[in-house]
């Protein structure tokens, strides 16, 4: 890898941005493509698939033999609320390769005894997310049912383009939530990105089943997210 490409990759890593290094196997030379860039022709389709799968691949484009090497930031889940659903999610998320953090200012809920070996932060989301900002490789899950705790991280997640934003609550509860968020400056196209009621509709009833439904929806959102733009 040449020095220019290495510098571009290091900048991408520090900023938690995905990148693909495209190497011409016939003529030599390489190109770094960042997720979200416009890529012309069939190469754009191959690069988009590489970003979605996270797997390196050899491809043929217009008679050229190319190798695509993918560098993705580790996907993560930030859960707002130290509740029973969060306990189940904390056990399941590592199985599919997701780091997980739980944030809840309610110290009666956010205890090491209830969340052993979990990245648990007993503080207000406004303060935590100021120190540890969300990004496009983060899924935000809000499950406290308390607007004072949930609303700010939901707004922040939408503004920072998190690949998944979900919130617990009935349709009636969510309608009131949307009204509040729009009153704070979000438009309907932004709030439409919130998965609510949260999780895939599998008829989940217990906290463990709801956690399965949420995690499945997160994986679906990650694998189907928009990546490069094809020109």
Automatic annotation (TrEMBL):
InterPro entries: MoCofactor_Util/Proc, XdhC_Rossmann_dom
Gene3D superfamilies xref list: NAD(P)-binding Rossmann-like Domain
Name of the protein described by the UniProt record: Xanthine dehydrogenase accessory factor
Domain XdhC Rossmann: 77-218
Sections of the chain in a coiled coil: none
Record-linked Pfam families: XdhC_C
């Amino acid at each position: 890898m040449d020095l220019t490409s290495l510098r571009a990759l290091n900048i991408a890593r520090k900023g938690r941005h995905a990148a693909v290094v495209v190497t011409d196997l016939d003529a030599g030379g390489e190109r770094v493509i960042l997720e979200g860039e416009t890529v012309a022709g069939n190469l754009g389709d191959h690069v988009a698939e590489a970003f979605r799968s996270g797997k390196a691949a050899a491809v043929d484009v217009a008679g050229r033999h190319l190798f695509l090497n993918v560098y993705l930031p580790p996907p993560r889940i930030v859960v707002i609320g130290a509740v029973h659903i969060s306990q189940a999610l904390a056990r399941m998320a590592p199985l599919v390769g997701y780091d997980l953090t739980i944030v809840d200012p309610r110290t009666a809920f956010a205890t090491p005894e209830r969340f052993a070996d979990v990245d648990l932060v007993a503080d207000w989301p406004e303060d935590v997310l100021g120190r540890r900002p969300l990004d496009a490789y983060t899924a935000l899950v809000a499950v406290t049912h308390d607007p004072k705790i949930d609303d700010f991280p939901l707004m922040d997640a939408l503004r920072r383009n998190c690949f998944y934003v979900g919130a617990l609550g009935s349709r009636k509860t969510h309608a009131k939530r949307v009204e509040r968020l729009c009153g704070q400056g979000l438009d309907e196209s932004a709030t439409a990105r919130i998965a609510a009621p949260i999780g895939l509709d599998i008829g989940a009833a217990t906290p463990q089943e709801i956690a399965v439904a949420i995690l499945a929806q997160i994986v679906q959102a990650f694998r189907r997210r928009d990546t490069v733009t094809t020109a």
